[in-house]
Amino acid sequence: VDPLRHLDEDLAALGSRGLLREPPAPSSPRLLDLCSNDYLGYAAEPCLPPAGWQPWPSLSLRSGAGASRLVAGHDPSHEEAETTLASWLGAEAALLFSSGYAANAGVLSALARPGDVIVSDALNHASIIDGCRLSGATVRVVPHCDASAVDAALAASTASHRWVVTEAYFSMDGDNPDLPSLRAICDRHDAALIVDEAHALGVFGPRGTGLCATAGIRPDVLVGTAGKALGLQGAFVAGSRRLRLWLWNRARSFVFSTGISPALASAIAIRARRAAADEPARVRLASAAARLREGLIVLGVAGGTALGGQGHIIPWVVGTPERAVQLSMRLREHGVRVQAIRPPTVPAGTSRLRITATAGLTDADIDRALQAFRAAIG
Ligand SMILES: Cc1ncc(COP(=O)(O)O)c(C=O)c1O
Is pTM beyond 0.85 here? Predict the structure, then answer.
Protein backbone atom coordinates (compact mmCIF):
# COMPACT_ATOMS: atom_id res chain seq x y z
CA VAL A 1 0.00 0.00 0.00
CA ASP A 2 1.06 3.55 -0.67
CA PRO A 3 -0.02 5.97 2.07
CA LEU A 4 0.21 8.86 -0.40
CA ARG A 5 -2.18 7.28 -2.95
CA HIS A 6 -4.94 9.79 -2.18
CA LEU A 7 -2.76 12.43 -3.83
CA ASP A 8 -3.60 10.92 -7.24
CA GLU A 9 -7.21 11.85 -6.69
CA ASP A 10 -6.32 15.30 -5.35
CA LEU A 11 -4.03 15.98 -8.31
CA ALA A 12 -6.74 14.83 -10.72
CA ALA A 13 -9.17 17.22 -9.01
CA LEU A 14 -6.72 20.10 -9.51
CA GLY A 15 -6.35 19.09 -13.16
CA SER A 16 -10.10 19.04 -13.75
CA ARG A 17 -10.33 22.63 -12.48
CA GLY A 18 -7.50 23.82 -14.71
CA LEU A 19 -5.33 24.44 -11.64
CA LEU A 20 -2.67 21.75 -11.93
CA ARG A 21 0.81 23.23 -12.22
CA GLU A 22 3.57 20.97 -13.44
CA PRO A 23 7.31 21.52 -13.41
CA PRO A 24 8.19 22.74 -16.90
CA ALA A 25 9.84 20.50 -19.44
CA PRO A 26 13.33 21.72 -20.31
CA SER A 27 12.47 24.69 -22.46
CA SER A 28 13.84 25.66 -25.78
CA PRO A 29 16.61 28.24 -25.39
CA ARG A 30 14.95 30.31 -28.11
CA LEU A 31 12.00 31.22 -25.91
CA LEU A 32 11.86 34.91 -25.12
CA ASP A 33 11.21 35.33 -21.41
CA LEU A 34 8.50 37.78 -20.45
CA CYS A 35 7.72 36.51 -16.98
CA SER A 36 10.87 36.63 -14.89
CA ASN A 37 11.65 38.93 -11.96
CA ASP A 38 15.20 39.48 -13.18
CA TYR A 39 14.32 43.11 -13.75
CA LEU A 40 17.83 44.50 -14.16
CA GLY A 41 19.01 41.53 -16.21
CA TYR A 42 21.68 40.27 -13.78
CA ALA A 43 20.54 36.71 -13.10
CA ALA A 44 22.11 34.99 -16.09
CA GLU A 45 25.58 36.11 -15.12
CA PRO A 46 27.84 33.44 -13.64
CA CYS A 47 27.87 33.29 -9.87
CA LEU A 48 31.54 32.36 -9.74
CA PRO A 49 33.75 35.44 -9.72
CA PRO A 50 36.09 36.03 -12.64
CA ALA A 51 39.55 34.46 -12.39
CA GLY A 52 41.91 36.50 -10.27
CA TRP A 53 39.08 38.20 -8.36
CA GLN A 54 40.19 39.03 -4.85
CA PRO A 55 37.43 39.46 -2.32
CA TRP A 56 37.86 42.48 -0.12
CA PRO A 57 38.63 41.38 3.44
CA SER A 58 35.07 41.33 4.70
CA LEU A 59 33.85 39.17 1.82
CA SER A 60 34.40 35.47 1.42
CA LEU A 61 33.61 32.76 -1.08
CA ARG A 62 32.93 30.10 1.54
CA SER A 63 30.15 27.99 0.14
CA GLY A 64 28.31 27.26 3.36
CA ALA A 65 27.72 28.98 6.68
CA GLY A 66 27.69 25.57 8.34
CA ALA A 67 25.19 26.53 11.04
CA SER A 68 22.66 29.09 12.10
CA ARG A 69 24.10 32.61 12.49
CA LEU A 70 23.42 32.35 16.24
CA VAL A 71 25.49 29.20 16.55
CA ALA A 72 28.62 28.98 14.39
CA GLY A 73 27.34 30.25 11.04
CA HIS A 74 28.09 33.95 11.33
CA ASP A 75 30.53 35.17 8.68
CA PRO A 76 31.94 38.66 8.04
CA SER A 77 30.36 38.59 4.58
CA HIS A 78 26.91 38.51 6.23
CA GLU A 79 27.77 41.71 8.07
CA GLU A 80 29.19 43.26 4.93
CA ALA A 81 26.00 42.53 2.97
CA GLU A 82 23.84 43.83 5.80
CA THR A 83 25.82 47.03 6.19
CA THR A 84 25.78 47.60 2.43
CA LEU A 85 22.01 47.05 2.20
CA ALA A 86 21.32 49.26 5.22
CA SER A 87 23.42 52.12 3.91
CA TRP A 88 21.89 51.77 0.41
CA LEU A 89 18.43 52.21 1.92
CA GLY A 90 19.41 54.75 4.55
CA ALA A 91 18.40 52.39 7.36
CA GLU A 92 20.27 51.83 10.60
CA ALA A 93 20.57 48.09 10.09
CA ALA A 94 19.57 45.09 8.01
CA LEU A 95 19.32 41.34 8.57
CA LEU A 96 19.63 38.68 5.88
CA PHE A 97 17.11 35.88 5.48
CA SER A 98 17.30 32.84 3.23
CA SER A 99 14.36 34.01 1.10
CA GLY A 100 11.64 36.63 0.93
CA TYR A 101 9.21 33.97 2.02
CA ALA A 102 11.27 33.32 5.15
CA ALA A 103 11.68 37.06 5.77
CA ASN A 104 7.95 37.80 5.70
CA ALA A 105 7.02 34.71 7.68
CA GLY A 106 9.74 35.47 10.23
CA VAL A 107 9.15 39.20 10.57
CA LEU A 108 5.38 39.11 10.98
CA SER A 109 5.42 36.20 13.40
CA ALA A 110 8.25 37.75 15.44
CA LEU A 111 6.64 41.17 15.69
CA ALA A 112 2.88 40.63 15.92
CA ARG A 113 1.39 38.60 18.77
CA PRO A 114 -1.99 37.20 19.74
CA GLY A 115 -4.15 40.17 20.75
CA ASP A 116 -2.49 42.47 18.19
CA VAL A 117 -4.22 43.54 15.00
CA ILE A 118 -2.59 43.34 11.57
CA VAL A 119 -4.25 45.27 8.75
CA SER A 120 -3.30 43.50 5.54
CA ASP A 121 -4.00 44.41 1.90
CA ALA A 122 -6.28 41.87 0.19
CA LEU A 123 -3.69 41.17 -2.51
CA ASN A 124 -0.62 40.79 -0.29
CA HIS A 125 1.78 37.98 -1.20
CA ALA A 126 1.31 34.48 0.25
CA SER A 127 4.41 34.88 2.43
CA ILE A 128 2.80 37.91 4.11
CA ILE A 129 -0.46 36.03 4.56
CA ASP A 130 1.36 33.08 6.09
CA GLY A 131 3.38 35.37 8.38
CA CYS A 132 0.15 36.99 9.58
CA ARG A 133 -1.34 33.57 10.29
CA LEU A 134 1.76 32.37 12.12
CA SER A 135 1.73 35.43 14.38
CA GLY A 136 -1.60 34.50 15.96
CA ALA A 137 -2.67 38.15 15.73
CA THR A 138 -6.13 39.17 14.53
CA VAL A 139 -5.88 39.87 10.82
CA ARG A 140 -8.10 42.49 9.18
CA VAL A 141 -7.93 42.11 5.42
CA VAL A 142 -8.78 45.39 3.69
CA PRO A 143 -9.67 46.05 0.03
CA HIS A 144 -6.69 46.41 -2.28
CA CYS A 145 -4.84 49.76 -2.07
CA ASP A 146 -7.65 51.33 -0.04
CA ALA A 147 -6.03 53.68 2.45
CA SER A 148 -9.35 54.79 3.93
CA ALA A 149 -10.18 51.14 4.70
CA VAL A 150 -6.85 50.88 6.52
CA ASP A 151 -7.74 54.01 8.48
CA ALA A 152 -11.15 52.59 9.40
CA ALA A 153 -9.71 49.20 10.42
CA LEU A 154 -7.18 50.88 12.72
CA ALA A 155 -9.81 53.21 14.16
CA ALA A 156 -12.03 50.22 14.94
CA SER A 157 -9.28 48.39 16.84
CA THR A 158 -8.39 48.82 20.48
CA ALA A 159 -5.42 46.45 20.34
CA SER A 160 -2.34 47.87 21.98
CA HIS A 161 -0.10 46.86 19.07
CA ARG A 162 -1.32 47.48 15.55
CA TRP A 163 0.45 46.75 12.27
CA VAL A 164 -0.19 47.65 8.66
CA VAL A 165 1.43 45.47 6.02
CA THR A 166 1.52 46.06 2.28
CA GLU A 167 3.59 45.46 -0.79
CA ALA A 168 5.17 48.59 -2.25
CA TYR A 169 4.55 47.47 -5.86
CA PHE A 170 2.15 44.58 -6.15
CA SER A 171 3.71 41.54 -7.70
CA MET A 172 0.67 40.34 -9.63
CA ASP A 173 -1.02 43.67 -10.37
CA GLY A 174 1.75 46.18 -11.04
CA ASP A 175 0.09 48.85 -8.94
CA ASN A 176 1.01 50.50 -5.69
CA PRO A 177 -0.60 51.76 -2.48
CA ASP A 178 -0.60 55.39 -1.47
CA LEU A 179 2.44 55.09 0.80
CA PRO A 180 2.44 58.67 2.15
CA SER A 181 -1.22 58.24 3.19
CA LEU A 182 -0.47 54.89 4.83
CA ARG A 183 2.45 56.45 6.72
CA ALA A 184 0.26 59.33 7.92
CA ILE A 185 -2.56 56.96 8.94
CA CYS A 186 -0.13 54.73 10.86
CA ASP A 187 1.32 57.77 12.63
CA ARG A 188 -2.14 58.99 13.57
CA HIS A 189 -3.06 55.61 15.06
CA ASP A 190 0.36 54.81 16.55
CA ALA A 191 0.58 51.75 14.28
CA ALA A 192 3.70 50.32 12.65
CA LEU A 193 4.07 50.19 8.86
CA ILE A 194 5.64 47.11 7.25
CA VAL A 195 6.39 47.44 3.52
CA ASP A 196 7.54 44.62 1.26
CA GLU A 197 9.60 46.24 -1.52
CA ALA A 198 10.32 42.92 -3.26
CA HIS A 199 9.34 44.12 -6.74
CA ALA A 200 10.28 47.78 -6.34
CA LEU A 201 13.80 47.56 -5.01
CA GLY A 202 16.51 48.18 -7.58
CA VAL A 203 13.88 49.45 -10.01
CA PHE A 204 12.17 52.54 -8.60
CA GLY A 205 13.42 55.46 -6.59
CA PRO A 206 16.70 57.29 -6.24
CA ARG A 207 19.54 54.78 -6.76
CA GLY A 208 16.88 52.05 -6.98
CA THR A 209 16.00 52.40 -3.31
CA GLY A 210 12.33 51.62 -3.89
CA LEU A 211 8.93 53.22 -3.61
CA CYS A 212 9.08 54.26 0.06
CA ALA A 213 12.13 56.32 -0.85
CA THR A 214 10.32 57.69 -3.91
CA ALA A 215 7.42 58.70 -1.70
CA GLY A 216 9.79 60.22 0.85
CA ILE A 217 8.52 58.05 3.68
CA ARG A 218 10.22 55.61 6.02
CA PRO A 219 8.47 52.36 6.91
CA ASP A 220 9.12 50.88 10.35
CA VAL A 221 10.05 47.62 8.67
CA LEU A 222 11.19 47.22 5.07
CA VAL A 223 11.44 43.79 3.45
CA GLY A 224 13.56 43.38 0.33
CA THR A 225 14.59 40.38 -1.71
CA ALA A 226 17.79 39.49 -3.53
CA GLY A 227 16.00 37.07 -5.87
CA LYS A 228 14.37 39.68 -8.07
CA ALA A 229 16.17 42.82 -9.32
CA LEU A 230 19.45 41.73 -7.73
CA GLY A 231 19.26 38.47 -9.70
CA LEU A 232 20.42 36.27 -6.82
CA GLN A 233 18.60 34.58 -3.96
CA GLY A 234 17.89 35.49 -0.36
CA ALA A 235 16.26 38.48 1.27
CA PHE A 236 16.63 40.99 4.04
CA VAL A 237 14.80 43.17 6.48
CA ALA A 238 15.92 46.78 6.97
CA GLY A 239 15.05 49.09 9.82
CA SER A 240 16.36 50.08 13.22
CA ARG A 241 19.16 48.35 15.16
CA ARG A 242 16.54 47.45 17.77
CA LEU A 243 14.42 45.73 15.09
CA ARG A 244 17.46 43.78 13.87
CA LEU A 245 18.29 42.59 17.36
CA TRP A 246 14.69 41.53 17.97
CA LEU A 247 14.59 39.55 14.74
CA TRP A 248 17.98 38.01 15.54
CA ASN A 249 16.39 36.68 18.72
CA ARG A 250 12.82 36.01 17.70
CA ALA A 251 12.37 35.49 13.93
CA ARG A 252 12.11 31.72 13.87
CA SER A 253 12.84 31.45 10.14
CA PHE A 254 16.16 33.19 10.90
CA VAL A 255 17.04 31.66 14.28
CA PHE A 256 16.32 28.06 13.33
CA SER A 257 17.80 28.09 9.85
CA THR A 258 21.34 27.80 8.49
CA GLY A 259 22.88 31.20 7.76
CA ILE A 260 22.87 32.00 4.06
CA SER A 261 25.94 30.97 2.15
CA PRO A 262 28.78 33.49 2.73
CA ALA A 263 29.45 33.41 -1.03
CA LEU A 264 25.84 34.43 -1.60
CA ALA A 265 26.09 37.16 1.04
CA SER A 266 29.20 38.46 -0.75
CA ALA A 267 27.35 38.42 -4.05
CA ILE A 268 24.46 40.34 -2.45
CA ALA A 269 26.86 43.01 -1.18
CA ILE A 270 28.40 43.37 -4.64
CA ARG A 271 25.06 43.34 -6.49
CA ALA A 272 23.48 45.89 -4.14
CA ARG A 273 26.31 48.32 -4.89
CA ARG A 274 25.98 47.62 -8.58
CA ALA A 275 22.19 48.04 -8.59
CA ALA A 276 22.47 51.31 -6.68
CA ALA A 277 24.72 52.71 -9.40
CA ASP A 278 23.03 51.11 -12.40
CA GLU A 279 20.89 53.99 -13.64
CA PRO A 280 21.38 52.87 -17.27
CA ALA A 281 19.70 49.51 -16.52
CA ARG A 282 16.78 51.32 -14.85
CA VAL A 283 16.40 53.56 -17.90
CA ARG A 284 16.49 50.53 -20.24
CA LEU A 285 13.92 48.75 -18.06
CA ALA A 286 11.55 51.72 -17.96
CA SER A 287 11.68 52.17 -21.70
CA ALA A 288 11.22 48.42 -22.37
CA ALA A 289 8.23 48.37 -20.02
CA ALA A 290 6.64 51.42 -21.65
CA ARG A 291 7.15 50.04 -25.18
CA LEU A 292 5.72 46.65 -24.21
CA ARG A 293 2.72 48.09 -22.36
CA GLU A 294 1.87 50.54 -25.14
CA GLY A 295 2.22 47.82 -27.77
CA LEU A 296 -0.12 45.53 -25.86
CA ILE A 297 -2.68 48.30 -25.41
CA VAL A 298 -2.56 49.06 -29.14
CA LEU A 299 -3.14 45.36 -29.84
CA GLY A 300 -6.31 45.60 -27.78
CA VAL A 301 -5.07 43.20 -25.12
CA ALA A 302 -7.50 43.30 -22.16
CA GLY A 303 -9.80 45.55 -24.19
CA GLY A 304 -7.15 48.26 -24.39
CA THR A 305 -7.25 48.97 -20.64
CA ALA A 306 -4.22 50.39 -18.88
CA LEU A 307 -3.12 46.84 -17.96
CA GLY A 308 -2.53 47.50 -14.29
CA GLY A 309 -0.81 50.67 -13.24
CA GLN A 310 2.59 51.41 -14.58
CA GLY A 311 6.05 49.99 -14.51
CA HIS A 312 7.56 46.65 -15.35
CA ILE A 313 4.73 44.32 -14.24
CA ILE A 314 1.92 44.19 -16.79
CA PRO A 315 -1.03 42.03 -15.73
CA TRP A 316 -3.42 40.81 -18.41
CA VAL A 317 -6.39 39.48 -16.45
CA VAL A 318 -8.28 36.95 -18.60
CA GLY A 319 -10.58 35.33 -16.01
CA THR A 320 -10.56 31.55 -16.11
CA PRO A 321 -7.48 29.40 -15.53
CA GLU A 322 -8.20 27.54 -18.78
CA ARG A 323 -8.09 30.76 -20.84
CA ALA A 324 -4.85 31.83 -19.17
CA VAL A 325 -3.22 28.46 -19.84
CA GLN A 326 -4.43 28.43 -23.43
CA LEU A 327 -2.97 31.85 -24.13
CA SER A 328 0.27 30.96 -22.41
CA MET A 329 0.59 27.84 -24.59
CA ARG A 330 -0.14 29.79 -27.76
CA LEU A 331 2.50 32.35 -26.85
CA ARG A 332 4.96 29.54 -26.24
CA GLU A 333 4.20 28.18 -29.71
CA HIS A 334 5.21 31.61 -30.98
CA GLY A 335 8.47 31.64 -29.04
CA VAL A 336 7.48 33.66 -25.98
CA ARG A 337 7.30 32.47 -22.39
CA VAL A 338 4.60 34.09 -20.24
CA GLN A 339 3.43 31.79 -17.49
CA ALA A 340 -0.29 31.60 -16.66
CA ILE A 341 -0.95 32.78 -13.11
CA ARG A 342 -3.90 31.05 -11.48
CA PRO A 343 -5.46 30.61 -8.04
CA PRO A 344 -4.24 30.32 -5.34
CA THR A 345 -1.61 32.85 -6.48
CA VAL A 346 -4.40 35.24 -7.55
CA PRO A 347 -8.09 35.37 -6.54
CA ALA A 348 -10.56 33.08 -8.35
CA GLY A 349 -11.87 34.64 -11.56
CA THR A 350 -8.71 36.72 -12.06
CA SER A 351 -6.37 34.22 -13.71
CA ARG A 352 -3.96 36.16 -15.82
CA LEU A 353 -0.84 36.42 -17.84
CA ARG A 354 1.64 38.33 -15.75
CA ILE A 355 3.90 39.95 -18.30
CA THR A 356 7.15 41.46 -17.08
CA ALA A 357 9.72 43.65 -18.74
CA THR A 358 13.42 43.31 -18.00
CA ALA A 359 16.33 45.60 -18.80
CA GLY A 360 17.83 43.11 -21.24
CA LEU A 361 14.91 43.27 -23.70
CA THR A 362 15.82 44.97 -26.95
CA ASP A 363 13.34 46.82 -29.17
CA ALA A 364 13.55 43.87 -31.57
CA ASP A 365 12.68 41.45 -28.73
CA ILE A 366 9.65 43.53 -27.85
CA ASP A 367 8.49 43.73 -31.46
CA ARG A 368 8.85 39.94 -31.68
CA ALA A 369 6.88 39.55 -28.46
CA LEU A 370 4.09 41.81 -29.74
CA GLN A 371 3.88 39.77 -32.94
CA ALA A 372 3.51 36.65 -30.81
CA PHE A 373 0.71 38.30 -28.81
CA ARG A 374 -1.04 39.32 -32.03
CA ALA A 375 -0.88 35.72 -33.25
CA ALA A 376 -1.94 34.25 -29.90
CA ILE A 377 -4.99 36.49 -29.63
CA GLY A 378 -6.07 36.08 -33.21
C1 LIG B 1 5.87 40.55 -2.67
C2 LIG B 1 6.73 39.35 -2.48
N3 LIG B 1 7.29 39.14 -1.28
C4 LIG B 1 8.07 38.06 -1.05
C5 LIG B 1 8.32 37.15 -2.05
C6 LIG B 1 9.16 35.96 -1.76
O7 LIG B 1 10.46 36.20 -2.09
P8 LIG B 1 11.45 34.99 -2.36
O9 LIG B 1 11.21 34.57 -3.77
O10 LIG B 1 12.79 35.56 -2.11
O11 LIG B 1 11.08 33.91 -1.38
C12 LIG B 1 7.80 37.36 -3.33
C13 LIG B 1 8.15 36.48 -4.47
O14 LIG B 1 7.68 35.52 -4.79
C15 LIG B 1 6.96 38.46 -3.54
O16 LIG B 1 6.38 38.65 -4.72
Answer: yes
